[in-house]
Amino acid sequence: MNRVSDYIELLSKKGLLLKTDVSEDVANIEIDCLTYDNREVCGSALFVCKGAHFKAEYLHSSMANGAVAYVSEQVYEGVASYILVSDVRVAMVYLAELFYDNAPSKVKSIGITGTKGKSTTAFYLKAIMDSWLAAEGKPESAIISSITTYDGVINEKSHLTTPEAIPLHRSFNNAYESGITHLVMEVSSQALKYDRVLGLNFDVACFTNIGLDHISPVEHADFEDYFTSKLKIFDSCKVACINTDAQHSDRVLEYAEGKCEIVTFGSSADNTVCCSNIEKRGNATYFTVKTPEFSEEVCITMPGIFNVSNALAAIAMSYVLGIPKEHVISSLRDARVNGRMLVYNSNDDKIAVIVDYAHNKMSFDAIFNSVSLEYPDRDVIAVFGCPGNKAISRRKDMGESAGAHADYIILTEDDPAEEEIADINAEVVKYIGECKYDMVENRGEAIHKAFFDYEAEKRVILILGKGEETTQKRGTEFITTPSDSEYTLMCLKEYEMRNGN
């Protein structure tokens, strides 16, 4: 274990140290806990003060529970043993790197970024890797995503797409100590902009696509800031997998050129990995894939034509990782992703329900276009909301997309945080045009209304934004709620009972 003095010396070498007030006795204490969460403090802890909602009481609590020193951008009166730094976010990276002995360098890492498809692509790749690793007699791969985190020790639902540096390095360390050899993770624009993944050298980095999202005063000021943040993933990777069908792919390729080896994927035959002959057969989608290693027909059974692009990304990364084709083809056929394109049908086939995590313009356009192809004879009801205090541009983008494609919209809550749900929904209404709509703040009641208060011979109900998440962020707390799938099953049961089924 490293002593407090080792962390001070490291921060000084990195040019982050401004001032310290640490006695010789404290400087010699070995640190066995590094955290910014006062609820996690144990043993001899080094506590980090960070975040817009940080309160001095968190520091006092941590010191009372055994923290021996704290790292901060400001000095707190009445609390000794401070280590003052110029940038606490960057400091966390180096602190975590030292505390966990540079664990990310010990596990093969795959990072996926993009506006749409990160989660599905990550789980597609995990399914492929797990099949291959099992055949090799190795543990399943780790994953860090907006849906769940699994690292061999932690197995839980996620609140952040990409964790802060300390829990991120902890997960890499958990994976390494659990014998896990591969970790796939979603890398958000916020993680790239604010240096959460600083120092990680991804073995493979994938860029799925780029579109408008996360534009707000507290995230990205404009599209250029959002895009350039995404591109930073290529500053530290060995091989880049890039979707040439995506908008601005020429700029993505130009940025990555010279920084790393490049593998391209898309519909054009001159890509490293390309696809053709896409067609629906029953409930499956078939397409031909050509790579430097094989040319085969591939099948995916997750609904949505747009998932072909996500599957192709996973195939490209599998090629880089040297995974044999039999694992790629069989795993994609069977792969499922929690909260993504979950389809439920009533017994009389009059109601089809799709639960999906779609939560920005690109994913809304993709799912509405897919529904128009796969359910051409049905009215479309869209149930969704927009988050509070972030991604303000979604209110316009999602409102316009739903207004252009749906027959009826029910606006409801989706992590309102510290904003009023009514105010968020009133802003969305400005952009839905002539589409009929209602506002129902309680999400369960909104879904119930979609089942029972709309007259149509046949309908498809799109419940968008939350997937199988079981919390709502209200204020600064995450409140436990049923998932959209649970609400759907309850409503389907009531529907069948009403109809005598």
Description of the structure:
The protein has 501 residues and is α/β, with parallel strands linked by helices. It contains 16 helices and 24 strands. It has helices at residues 4-13, 24-27, 56-64, 88-99, 118-135, 165-177, 189-193, 223-231, 249-256, 307-321, 325-334, 361-374, 393-405, 421-429, 443-452, 484-498, and strands spanning 17-21, 33-35, 45-48, 67-72, 82-85, 108-113, 142-144, 148-150, 155-157, 182-186, 202-207, 237-243, 261-266, 273-281, 284-290, 295-300, 342-345, 351-356, 379-384, 408-411, 436-439, 459-464, 471-474, 477-480. The strands form four sheets. The protein has an eleven-stranded mixed sheet with strand order 9-8-7-10-6-11-12-13-14-15-16, sandwiched between helices. The longest helix has 18 residues, at 118-135. It is globular. It starts with a helix and ends with a helix. The model has no long low-confidence stretch (mean pLDDT 94).
What would you report as the Rg, rounded to the nearest angstrom?
A: 24 Å
Mean of residue pLDDT values = 94
Q: Count of DSSP E strands?
A: 24
Q: State which percent range the strand residues make up.
A: 15-25%
Instruction: Specify the structural class.
Output: alpha/beta
Largest sheet: 11 strands, mixed
Low-confidence stretches: none
Please state the overall shape, judged from the principal axes of the Cα atoms: globular
Portion of residues within helices = 25-40%
Number of helical runs? 16
Distance between the termini: 64 Å
Q: Which strand order do you get reading across the main beta sheet?
A: 9-8-7-10-6-11-12-13-14-15-16
